[in-house]
Design brief:
Oligomer: single chain
Number of helices: 11
CATH class of the largest domain: Alpha Beta
Largest sheet: 7 strands, antiparallel
Helix content: 25-40%
Order of helices and strands: EHHEHEEHHHEHEEHEEEEHHEEHEE
Shape: globular
Distance between the termini: 36 Å
Number of strands: 15
Number of domains: 3
Length: 370
C-alpha cells in the first residue's frame, strides 16, 4: 500500500528550500481542489491524502477508478493499516516543506527521506543542472539537436551572455520554476522596438532579474526559438533501473500549461513525425535513458519527466518537416501532467481527447473530445 499526495506547489517550495513555507493561494487552491488526482495512477487499495474527503467534487471517471481499484481518500494517514516508511509515500514531488508537513502530522524521522536526499532533488531540479548534465551531453554529439542554456549570477554577466545569444530574442528563466511562471522573453537588440519585447534596460525586466538573483542566486539565459511542437518523455526511476512510461504532447500559452493530448503512443508518434524523422526519437529515447540512469539510479526514486520541443530549422517552405529537436527544455524530478495524461490515455486509436485544467473560482480536471 502507498500513500499518495498531490503537492503542486512543489517547484515553488524547491525555490524556497525551507521547512516552513506557505504556498501562494493559487497553489493551495489547486492542491485542495485536485487532491484526488493520484487516484488515477494509484494501485489497488492505495490511499490518497486530501483536505476534505467528503466535500470534494469528483469527476465521474475518478469515481470509477476509486471503485475499480478500491482506493481510499483519507484526511489522516495515521488511519492506514501499517506504519509508513518514506518508500511507501508517493508525492507529486519531494521537498523540505512536504517533509516538514508530514513530520508535523506524526511521521518519525526514520519514516521520512533524509535531508541529503531532499537537497539532491533540489539541486538536480535547478535548470543549470539540466543544462550542463543533460542538454549539453546530447547537443554536443548530434547536429540534428539544438539548444543551449547559460547561468548568470550578476547583471554584468547576464549582459555578456545576452550579447552572445544568436537569436533576436532570449528567454530569461528563474532556476526553479514551472508552467510558464518565472519566465521572461526579452529582446537582445537594444533600441529595436519591432520585436515587441522589452530589453534588459526596461525597469520592470531589470527589477524582475534582480529579484530572482536575490532569491535564487541567478537566472538562466536561453535563445528564443520558433517553436513548432511541445512534447515530453516520461520515466519512472526505480532503485535499480529507469523505466520509460510514454510520450506527452501538451499545449502551452505564453509558456503556461493548458492541456495534454490523450491518445495512443502510435498516434502521438505520428503527430511528431510531421516535424522530424521519427527515428531520431527512437535514438533519443535510448540515449536519454542511459543519461538518466547514470545521473539518478541509486540517488533518486520516483517519476521523472523531460520536456522537449521541436523548433524550426530555418525559413524554408518545408520547415514543418525540417525541424530540429531541442532535447531538454526542462528536467522534472517529480510527477508531471504528462504522467497524469498517460494514466488516462486510450488503448484504442481514433479516440483522441484533450485533458485540461479549468478554473472558474475553483479548479477542475476536464476531459473533452477532439
Amino acid at each position: 500500500m502507498k500513500l499518495h499526495i498531490f503537492n503542486p506547489e512543489h517547484d515553488i517550495a524547491l525555490a524556497c528550500h525551507r521547512e516552513h513555507f506557505t504556498a501562494p493561494k493559487a497553489g493551495r487552491d489547486l492542491r485542495r481542489d485536485l487532491a484526488f488526482l493520484p487516484v488515477l495512477w494509484a494501485a489497488d487499495r492505495d490511499v490518497v491524502l486530501v483536505d476534505d474527503a467528503r466535500g470534494m467534487c469528483l469527476p465521474d471517471f475518478v469515481k470509477a477508478r476509486l471503485a475499480e481499484r478500491h482506493v481510499r481518500l483519507v484526511t489522516d494517514f495515521r488511519t492506514t493499516e501499517k506504519p509508513l516508511s518514506w518508500q511507501d509515500i508517493a508525492p507529486w514531488g519531494w521537498d523540505l516543506a512536504l517533509r516538514s508537513r508530514l513530520a508535523d502530522l506524526g511521521l518519525t524521522e526514520s519514516s521520512l527521506p533524509s535531508r541529503a536526499y531532499i537537497d539532491f532533488v533540489c539541486n538536480a531540479s535547478h535548470r543549470q543542472f539540466a543544462a550542463e548534465h543533460v542538454l549539453k551531453q546530447l547537443v554536443d554529439h548530434d547536429d540534428r539537436l539544438t539548444g543551449s542554456a547559460e547561468y548568470a549570477t550578476t547583471i554584468n554577466e547576464l549582459e555578456e551572455k545576452l550579447a552572445a545569444v544568436h537569436t533576436s530574442c532570449a528567454m530569461l528563466k528563474a532556476p526553479w520554476s514551472s508552467s510558464g511562471r518565472g519566465v521572461r522573453r526579452i529582446s537582445t537588440r537594444l533600441g529595436d522596438n519591432s520585436l515587441h519585447a522589452p530589453t534588459l534596460a526596461d525597469p520592470s525586466v531589470r527589477g524582475w532579474v534582480l529579484g530572482v538573483m536575490a532569491r535564487q542566486g541567478g537566472v538562466m539565459v536561453e535563445p528564443y526559438y520558433d517553436k513548432l511542437l511541445d512534447f515530453g518523455v516520461e520515466f519512472e526511476v526505480t532503485p535499480t533501473t529507469v523505466k520509460y512510461r510514454g510520450l506527452s504532447l501538451f499545449r502551452t500559452v505564453n509558456g503556461a500549461y493548458t492541456g495534454n493530448l490523450l491518445a495512443t503512443e502510435e498516434e502521438k508518434m505520428t503527430l511528431i513525425a510531421a516535424y522530424i524523422d521519427i527515428k531520431l526519437i527512437d535514438e533519443y529515447l535510448h540515449v536519454i535513458s542511459l543519461i538518466i540512469s547514470k545521473l539518478f539510479v541509486g540517488k533518486y526514486v520516483g517519476p521523472l519527466g523531460v520536456d522537449m520541443m521541436i523548433v524550426s530549422a530555418g525559413d524554408s517552405a518545408a520547415k514543418q518537416t525540417n525541424g530540429l529537436l531541442h532535447p531538454c527544455v526542462e528536467l522534472n524530478l517529480r510527477r508531471t501532467m504528462g504522467h497524469v495524461a498517460l494514466s488516462l490515455s486510450p488503448s484504442e486509436q481514433n479516440n483522441r481527447k484533450l485533458m485540461s485544467i479549468r478554473y472558474d473560482g475553483s479548479y477542475h480536471l476536464d476531459i473533452s473530445p477532439l
